[in-house]
Amino acid sequence: MDSSTNQILNENILEIRYKPNPQILDYRGDLTKNLSAQMDLDQWKIDINRVDLFRIDQSIRVFVSFRNAGVVMRNIASVDSFVYIAQKYIHSLFNQKVMNNSYFIERVGVRSRFAFLSELSFEKMVEKYQENFIVISDNVSELINAKLIDIGFPLNYETEKGNINLIVGPMKKDQLHSYFSFEKKEVLPDVVFYYDFDYWKTINSQTSVKDLSSLLKTFAEENWQKCDDLHLLINRE
Fold first, then answer.
1. CA of 108: how far to CAs of 74, 97, 221, in Å?
2. The pTM of the whole model exceeds 0.85
3. Residue 47: strand pairing partners
4. What pLDDT does 147 receive?
5. Of 52, 74, 139, 209, whose CA is between 20 and 30 Å from 59?
6. What is the pLDDT of residue 42?
7. What DSSP element (H or E) covers 31?
8. 219: helix, coil or strand?
């Protein structure tokens, strides 16, 4: 079964942090004009230290400030579209003359958040999570001597490529809306399985656009694949 068929919401965020570049503040107008044309984004907002460009439906947003830049995409059909837009943006951005001093990259991260529909009750979802992901020992259950009614907490992993901050668990509508506030609460389901993968790496060195493109692609694709695999694992019989 392709678990993505049950996926109803996603939000994908690229953030690149670089050595602060105060020149960006003087070129906000030029950045807005150039990036708007190159990224085909006709909506924009210029703040004191940041520029945002976006579609009117907020499905795509890019931003740049004196110390970070990134891309936000919502409810996309596949990870490929995110990778394409994110790579296009960083090529366009770092090709701007004012960005010549911003190749000292401090950190790169891709955060991917997902909500999956489930026909199970919230109580059954908690049981699935406990049985197939976080197994609580009998000794702990006997010690607490109470019924487990909710479960979910952050986990931190280290890979050969970076670090993953992971939050997984069943979620009710009120909490879901706080995570996906851009959706109308009344159209959200009562319960979902929620997955949050934040894959990042501290770099602190001069980094090429080619290496940034490769890294964001790896992080995004692994987030989506790990999410699908984990959702199948938790929901196995």
1. 19, 21, 15
2. yes
3. none
4. 66
5. 209
6. 95
7. helix 28-39
8. helix
Block residue for tokens 């953030």: 15
What is the residue whose two structure tokens read 């940034």? Answer: 212
DSSP letter for each residue of 114-182 = EEEE-SS-HHHHHHHHHHHTSPPPHHHHHHH-S-------EEEEE-SS-EEEEEEEEEEHHHHHHHSTT
Helix, strand, coil shares of the chain, percent, nearest 5, are: 40, 35, 25
Residue 130, token pair as written in the block: 């406990």
Question: How does strand 7-18 pair with strand 50-54?
Answer: unpaired
In this structure, of 19-23, 47-51, 130-134, 185-189, the range with the lowest mean pLDDT score is: 130-134
Q: What are phi and psi of 157, to 5 degrees?
A: -120, 155
Confidence of residue 2 (pLDDT cuts 50, 70, 90): very low
CA-nearest of 212, 202, 219 to 95 is: 212
Residues 6+ apart with CB under 8 A from 127: none
**Amino acid letter, residue 197:** F
Rounded Cα–Cα distance for residues 67 and 60 (Å): 21
In the chain, how long is the greatest CA-to-CA distance? 64
Give yes or no for residue 4 having a pLDDT over 60.
no
Per this entry, what is the length of the chain? 237
